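Before anything else, study the sequence and fold tokens given here and see whether the fold suits the sequence. Record follows:
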Amino acid sequence: MRRLTLSFDNPIFELPHRVGMQGIAKLLDYCDRIKCLSSFITWQVTAKQININWQCSDLDFFCDLQRQAYSIKNGEIDSPCLELDDEERYVFSQGILNSFLQHNTHRKFTEEKQLREFTIYPNSLPIQKTIRILANHYYLGIPRNVFNKNGDFLAKIPLKSNYFPGLLEEKNGAGIYEATVEEFFVLYFLPLATAIYTLPLDISGNRMAMCFINSPDLLNSLNRRIPRKLIETNITSAGDAALRILVNNKERDVYRLDHEVFILGPQRWNTRQKYLKQSVSRINTNYGVVDLYSKFYAELKPQYRLKEKEGEVDKAFISISHTLGVISDNLIAGKDWHYNLGQYLLTQDYFEKETLIKMVESYTKQQYKDFREIIQSIFFPYLVNSGYHSKTKRKILYSLNAPKHKQGFAKAFNEFLLNSELITKDKNTVKLVTELIETDWQLAKDWTLQAIILAVPPSKENNPTGVKTNDE
């Protein structure tokens, strides 16, 4: 009898390896329910360990599990054990093809392309996606350099690092990592438990995020739901990916709160390599942050939209909030959710102004609210006197944002105050601002920019969200 023991306590296992164990636990649970494995294979799954025994060759054992883990259906990668619907299969397949199997040597396509349509809501216009038809991929058939001629596992299995982007440290400089059987096994089934998200385009090109979710208990992780719907898997940052998986799963004992998120995308000096590792975020948070994020997510979550062309509906798409990504990264860094938000909003042609104002009023400290009130009481007279001319707001924002040091900003702020009635009536009114400039001028600068950008004069209170007026 042959035996394989996989344990959370294995000293060479890192988080991705433990996530791979979650994928194997999911696979074995499915096999147990439908009784699809050979009677020669037995197993036991506990909270932190998986024991598998088999009375056949290593190759037969491996292929038996492989058939239940990976297949091709309708030209896409499928996983029988995950029991995916059409939309989930599309998301699962595209996620793997753009991450684990990103290289052409990992997959083979036919010349044919097909149109896929996914209905997000009943009776709504479907979202259309065109795919290349998949003929073969790495997770089908017998992987090379894993078994000897007798069908036994090799003692050391050479793995190319490009099959597992960012996960393997090459030891011989030739792109090869020598893995134990345990390492190979958990990495091979890692995609079953990895949350893969699509990020917006940046100047380097397409990007993906692979989120490895820590779970303290393999049995509890069986209840975990990984987002695999189009409206769930579009994100804007690493923090957004890590926090969204926690919000989407209500059972808090399913997870620990430390995750890893790998951002994959082209390197700017070599864009032919489409999904190299750009960054790794190791995230350790708490439930207070998760609860706060859930409130922002409820307001800024992805939305189903219709695009019009020449007065007629042209197509449906998923709209995402870039602001949510900025807020998420602030939260996981332990900063105020609106930290540096002013600098971000200055670069945006469109943002959720009405929603942000509501958030500011509900989820900020009193010091920030008092500061905001002072700045807006100084700014509104300028706006009114100019007849709400757009140049007035732009000019003030430019003059306050231009300084790159404390003295320059203090001078710009004093000029901003110069014609204000506040400075002549009550100097103590602006004391909060001047004290903050003295202690943290960069924070004072950003709070000032936020207050002006999110200012809504009384006569403009009914302005629709994101629609520009003369004062914007």
Notes: The CA atoms of residues 186 and 432 lie 56 Å apart.
